[in-house]
Amino acid sequence: MQNLSKLEADYSVEPSFEVARAMIDLRISGGPIAAGGGAPTVTEEHDHRFDGLEHLPEIGLEHLDVGSLRAGILGKGALIVRNFMADDTVKFLREHIDNSLRSPNRLGQECPDGDPHDPWFCRSPMIAGGAPGPARVRGGDLSSTSGSLWTVDAPVAAAELVAFYKQVGLHRLLQTYFREQALLSVRKWVLRCVPPIRGGNKGWHQDGRFMGAGIRKVNLWIALTDCGKGMPAPGLELVADSRRVIHETGTHGAFFDWTVGPDLVAKLSQERPVVCPTFRAGDAILFDHFSLHRTGEGPHDTEPRYAVESWFFAASTAPTKQQPLLF
Ligand SMILES: O=C(O)CCC(=O)C(=O)O
Ligand SMILES: [Fe+2]
User: Fold this and answer.
1) Of ligand 1's atoms, which has the minimum distance to the CA of residue 203?
2) Domain 2-325 falls in which CATH fold?
3) Which of 46, 148, 174, 242 would staple 182 via disulfide (CB 3.0–4.6 Å)?
4) Domain boundaries, the chain
């Protein structure tokens, strides 16, 4: 989209909230136009370069290409990329998340329509079902210090992230991986601050559970805090498994109908290791909708954990319900 490229160029010269907000609207309006269409022929072949490893493969950013991505996700179930994001971008996003979480606009403390000039939290009227009032939350009250945000509600963070994705070559990488354009979505592009709730998590899940077998997507999860095994903040726990299966939910002691029960995970773990990688702020992990994972809250955590979750869809399979988004 020509207008979007122009705004991106303007923003790179002179970043501003107004341009960041205008870009969100163009990304939302362009998403459905790019979504759908014919699907390319794809295979799940890869070069087995990580076959000898017992746990998840790890590489540096300089080795991230379509070969390592395929061998990581399709061969081992996930790929860890160390030092993915530079410290200054990590710090910028962490501070932005703090400000967005406590924004009166998010908490519903402003006028019913919200303050359209709040640089930290501003919901575009083009976001389905979400214009006025406080941000929606799945049960419970909104906290001003932790929780999740749709990245599109934080236009400046969104602009910085898209610029970062460009800088690391993500567009080309995902285009090659999917053999077609990649799209983000309103609902699965998330900024998060998880509090140290010490073992309260019950949510083993697969992000493919609701989306049907034909979906193709990849999650890029970036830690913005040192977290996971040996760290004082909640990490991410995963079953290191390359099988392309959706597991039964709502059984084996599951707490919700969309989660995989702990007894089933215990059974799976007899054959596939459950891992809780140690992440430094700026490290990333890539996995797809078959990955079985949960927030890995340790019993001794004392610190909150910040992260960015970006689910990229192959355009031909991008679900309308998630509001596909250009990036
Ligand atoms: O950040 C978390 O703890 C959860 C992340 C997650 O479930 C995902 O990225 O799909
Ligand atoms: Fe998930």
Assistant:
1) 7
2) Jelly Rolls (2.60.120)
3) 174
4) 2-325
Atom of ligand 1 nearest to the CA of 293: 7
Supply φ then ψ for residue 12, to 5 degrees: -70, -25
The pLDDT tens digits of the residues spanning 224-254 come to: 999 999 999 999 999 999 999 999 999 999 9
Q: What is the largest CA-CA distance in the chain?
A: 58
Task: State the Cα–Cα distance between residues 71 and 309, nearest whole angstrom.
Answer: 21
User: Which residues are bridge partners to 12 per DSSP?
Assistant: none
Q: Is the pTM of this model over 0.90?
A: yes
Tokens of 317: 């399979």
Q: Do 43 and 318 contact (CB within 8 A), yes or no? A: no
pLDDT value for 205: 95
Query: From the centroid of its chain, how far is CA 48?
Result: 26
Task: Using pLDDT thresholds of 50, 70 and 90, give the confidence band for residue 203.
Answer: very high
pLDDT tens profile 64-81: 999 999 999 999 999 999
Q: How far apart are CA 237 and CA 240, in angstroms?
A: 9
Angstrom distance (rounded) from CA 187 to CA 162: 16
| Ligand 1 proximal residues by C-beta, below 6 Å | 192, 194, 207, 219, 221, 236, 293, 295, 307, 309
Is the CB of residue 47 less than 8 Å from the CB of residue 188? no
CA of 5 to the centre of ligand 2 (A): 31
- Taking the C-alpha atoms of residue 258 and residue 266, their distance in angstroms, rounded to an integer, is 17
Residues 243-288 pLDDT 10s: 999 999 999 999 999 999 999 999 999 999 999 999 999 999 999 9
